[in-house]
Design a protein that fits this description.
Blueprint lengths: L2 H20 L15 E13 L5 E12 L45 E5 L10 E9 L5 E8 L3 E8 L4 E5 L14 E6 L7 E8 L10 E9 L8 H8 L5 E14 L1
Parallel strand pairs: 1-11
Antiparallel strand pairs: 1-2, 2-3, 4-5, 5-9, 6-8, 6-10, 7-9, 10-11
The protein binds 2-acetamido-2-deoxy-beta-D-glucopyranose.
Protein name: Endoplasmic reticulum metallopeptidase 1-like C-terminal domain-containing protein
Pfam families: ERMP1_C
Family: Belongs to the peptidase M28 family.
């Protein structure tokens, strides 16, 4: 090809590339005929962490915010100043899925999220979660059976500790499948009037068992609709989002147990 044409095309590409990446153009629009919304997820969440003895070790609440593009919250902060990088989260590797109520196993997709302290959530039908039984099998594993009664959507996160591994469970064909981040994620949804969800897994515990126990189990509830979906604080925050943004929001809980 003619080197002049090549150089011409190359410079057009370079100029366009620089313009697009310079941030000179505002990327979002709320116009109905050409919408380019900024997508944000906001989960008003209460988190409760239990220790090996079953006691509550810590509890907190906040608005957990996920932004799914590279501009993060840089265009949101001018409108809602308290959403800024001072409230960026840090992954706690010792908690399943960093200790946050992911509703899909996409922890690797969105590395940036924010947690703004807020009041406790009080859903009218809170999640009931219990360990029904824990028994040693004759083939050397520990079988744990659980019961969960909660809203239509729940996520379960399993994180076997160092040296421990899941050998089988009550889901699918019985072979535990971990996700891209190496943790186990189960998404459960049910219709109205479903019975309580019971499930089990078998774990091969390390010998000797370390001081951290064999597994961390966490469960999240997601109130996607109905009167439990919003809180006053969440509504107030939503009202302040600019019209070119599209916040999806709901109430969640995250409860973690160690065994
Ligand atoms: C950043 O957020 C924190 C906590 O939400 C807030 O206290 C602070 O004032 C914010 N900073 C700015 C520059 O608005």
């Amino acid at each position: 090809m003619n080197p002049w044409i090549l150089a011409g095309l190359g410079s057009i590409f370079l100029v366009m590339f620089l313009l697009v990446s310079s941030g000179l153009f505002f990327p979002y629009s709320g116009r109905a005929d050409s919408p380019r919304p900024k997508r944000v997820f906001i989960q008003h969440t209460t988190r409760t962490f239990h220790n090996l003895q079953g006691q509550v070790e810590s509890q907190d609440s906040g608005l957990w915010i996920n932004s799914f593009d590279f501009t993060a919250v840089q265009h949101i902060s001018p409108h809602i100043p308290e959403i800024n990088d001072t409230v960026r989260t840090h992954c706690r590797e010792d908690r399943p899925f960093c200790g946050y109520p992911w509703f899909l196993p996409v922890k690797f997709l969105s590395k940036k999220n924010w947690y703004l302290p807020a009041s406790e959530v009080m859903p009218s039908s809170p999640l009931e979660f219990s360990l029904l039984s824990k028994e040693e099998t004759s083939w050397g594993t520990v079988k744990m059976t659980f019961r969960a009664k909660g809203p239509s959507h729940m996520s379960l996160y399993l994180m076997p500790h160092r040296g421990a591994s899941l050998s089988t469970w009550s889901f699918g064909d019985g072979t535990p499948q971990y996700d891209l981040s190496g943790e186990y994620f189960v998404f459960y949804s049910h219709g109205v009037d479903a019975p309580a969800w019971t499930f089990w897994f078998e774990i091969q515990d390390p010998d000797p068992l370390g001081p951290e126990g064999m597994i961390s189990v966490a469960i999240s509830s997601h109130y996607f609709f109905g009167k439990d979906q919003r809180t006053a604080q969440l509504q107030e925050m939503l009202n302040r989002f600019p019209d070119w943004s599209f916040p999806s929001s709901w109430v969640s809980t995250y409860d973690m147990y160690r065994y």
